[in-house]
Amino acid sequence: MLTHDLSVPPPAGVLAGIGQADIIMNVASDSHVDRSISGPAEFVSNNILLMLSMLEFARSNPPRLFLQMGTDEVYGPMTGGVPNREWDTVVPSNPYSASKASQDCLAIAWWRTYQLPLILTRTMNLYGPAQDGEKFIPMVIRKVLAGDTVPVHASPEGVPGSRYWIDVRELAAAWLFLAGREPARFPAADRPDMFHVVGEYRDNLSVARDIAEILGRPLHAELVSFHASRPGHDLAYGLDGSKLAAAGWKPRRTLEESLAETVEWYCRHRNWLRA
Questions:
Q1: Is residue 73 annotated as part of the catalytic site, yes or no?
Q2: What is the pLDDT of residue 229?
Q3: What is the DSSP string of 116-132?
Q4: Active site residue 96
Q5: pLDDT greater than 60 at residue 29
Q6: Contact criterion met (CB below 8 Å) for 198 and 164
Q7: Against a cut of 0.90, is the pTM above it?
Q8: Across residues 209-230, what is the average pLDDT?
Q9: How many domains does the chain have?
Q10: Would residue 144 count as lying in a domain?
Q11: Is residue 2 part of a domain?
Q12: If DSSP codes are grouped into helix, strand and coil, which group holds residue 203?
């Protein structure tokens, strides 16, 4: 295993250890909205600089494919209950989503200028074993086990926030599926390939209730106005996954099945529940 701070170009020793890459899968990014709000300059700088490092590595060592992981948050909030489709207008609401939109823009520029063999994906809230304890699902598990109150972002009127949820192992399966594709190239195409990797839609309070039920514990939840607690917070996100489904890929497991597996994993590995 090689480790390196991607916000700076990799030195010769790291490059030699990597060798010639067939596929580059770039999942590297800071992704916590609250931290992007409290320290935006460092957060955004890190995400943009690491993207430049990866793109320049790919330019010097051309791969067969460059897979870039994006987020539903670049579109801003879902309006009217209508999920966003690929290439809808990008209107990010916070420094995190703006940094991810910037990554996509840089990748598209490298695709057009330097013929980068690129496939962009955008996905929603990921969960699964070994996720950092600061994220919503491990946070809920930790607080339910301790009998603490679970804060759930909501509108000022008390409507809980909602997201599409997908197990990280399903995202990995989708990427392996896409890794077998021949990417669109400029100038034959006017833009690179983009696919939404989509799970199931559920409001955050329902997810917390499901976790408490799996644990066999009561849920003590408090709806917290997102306007007061998180500036730039979006109440709902949505992605349309029909394009990837038409290409031949869909998640294998339901939210209930994979959520139960995830909760059981954390119960066996409680050291991962630390915030």
A1: yes
A2: 55
A3: --EEEEEE-EEE-TT--
A4: yes
A5: yes
A6: yes
A7: yes
A8: 88
A9: 1
A10: yes
A11: no
A12: strand
- pLDDT band at residue 39 using 50, 70 and 90 as cut-offs: very high
Contacts of 93 (CB under 8 A, 6+ apart): 73, 76, 77, 232, 233, 234
**Average pLDDT, stretch 210-217?**
98
Strands 193-197 and 150-154: unpaired
According to DSSP, the residues that pair with 120 across neighbouring strands are 68, 194
DSSP bridge partners of 200: 165
190, part of any domain:
yes
Closest by alpha carbon to 195, among 85, 103, 269, 115? 85
Amino acid of residue 66: F
Domain range enclosing 243 = 12-273
Give which of 21, 47, 16, 20 is closest to 33, Cα–Cα: 47
50-106 per-position pLDDT tens digit: 999 999 999 999 999 999 999 999 999 998 889 999 999 999 999 999 999 999 999
Q: What is the CATH number of the domain that holds 53?
A: 3.40.50.720
pLDDT tens, position by position, 94-142: 999 999 999 999 999 999 999 999 999 999 999 999 999 989 999 999 9
**Catalytic pick from 30, 75, 86, 96?**
96
In a domain, 181, yes or no: yes
Identify whether 114 is a catalytic site residue. Answer: no
Whether residue 168 contacts residue 31, with contact meaning beta carbons closer than 8 Å, is answered with no
